[in-house]
Amino acid sequence: MSFDYAAQKAATEALWAEMSAQHDLPHQGQLDLHFRAGDGADATEFMGWLEDAGYDVEHYEADPEDEDDPEEAIEVQTGVMPLTPETIHAEERRCTEAALRFGFTPDGWGFIGA
């Protein structure tokens, strides 16, 4: 599967610029990355890779009865790190490369200031 990392980076930079224009953003914090399962996704292997790489991981099983969020998902949290578009995209790309190998796709990010 081909993935457009340049578009991902551009979207991250645009979102950061938009948020920066509206708020004073923290210089450091924990980054949350969100991934959705695709067909044949292997959550166990993806979570294992993430944990081995030092990330905290939350797994949300598919729930067809949840109208707001019926899909299987994984949320990844970094340790405290500098928050800039460059550092965010570096983590985003690293995890996206792994996610794609295990059948997941990126679905956004957020952060908690430290």
Automatic annotation (TrEMBL):
Family annotation (Pfam families): RraB
Gene3D superfamilies: RraB-like
Positions of the Regulator of ribonuclease activity B domain: 17-110
InterPro entries documented for this protein: RraB-like_sf, RraB_dom
Protein's recorded name: Regulator of ribonuclease activity B
Gene source species: Jannaschia helgolandensis
Higher taxonomy: Bacteria, Pseudomonadati, Pseudomonadota, Alphaproteobacteria, Rhodobacterales
